[in-house]
Design brief:
The chain is of the alpha+beta class. It has 18 helices and eight strands. The protein is globular, with a radius of gyration of 25 Å.
Amino acid sequence: MAEELRSYFSVEYVDFLAETLKSEVNLPVSEFTAYCLSDPWTDMALKERMARLTDAMVMFLPSDANEGTEILKRILPKISGDAFKFADMLNMFVPDYVVRRKDDLTLDAALDALVFFTHHGTSSEFAIRPFILEQTEPVMAAMQGYASHKHQDVRRFASEGCRPRLPWSMALPAFKKDPALVLPILEALRADESKFVQKSVANNLNDIAKDNPDIVLEFAEKWLGTHVNTNWIVRHGLRTLLKQGEPRALAFFGASPIELQNSELELSHQNLDFGGSLTFNFDAQIVGKLPDNLRIEYAIDFMKSNGKCARKVFKISEIKPSKREISLKKFHKFIDYSTRKHYGGVHSVAVIVNGQEVIQKEFELIK
């Protein structure tokens, strides 16, 4: 994804940006574009290209940070929307300018700019984080206020910006240790009508669960069942704990421990060539009372470059069972992704039912 986005920082985009800036400031267009596209632009990664554009803003906009910020406020709507594909991501250099000039802006001016940028064409969840690190309490007080903003983009920003483990961004170690300042924001947004906001709240809870599972379980116990939107948020916020087989998380959704008999797992290959698919069949019978919910997952223990295995869990289904027999067929394709590289060696596949590993078999991936 990052490689695809990188390509959209094109010559055409830089030219368009230059012409738009020229309408607001006395800009030497050829000098601006030459700087932006100078070596090693071709070899730069996504975030490096974004940083280059931020450098250009600092260099070519007026030296007064407030004036530069106002110019960016005026041009952002013109370079957003349908102007370019992925414009919301490409334009993240705009809030990054505020980070670069933060020592020359008051906190109120910086926050006002980030909020403006958030609901006029880009997102400021990365840009807010240095401010949270440096001025935690006043910034988080402002973020709590944004949780009641009329624009969904700003309400999402209130949650997304303070995620303890936001991908592609710096972590917030204090919130990994103690998310007390984050929780009031999540509680304020717990029944938000916007799916965009709901996803952020769920992701924030999931971040917190990785370091403070008890806090998220307490949140779930307090709010689950109070609103349909809250139910969705809680379920998705508990996804890591559910995959880990956390009994309290499973119990919230009726996935109580069960006893199985006659469990069988058949693999299509004992030796699988890289690029191929492993098909497996699982059959079992439930003993005793049927559970309220039947959550079935499979786990693969992938061989890593250091010769050790790392497990990843994949959800298959979640149903209210009407019979004792369980029978399923699943396949998994072994190809490399940007987030996962495969290595040859002994792997294993396991079936997990309501958080309990039922059966496991090994196979060898040949690469």
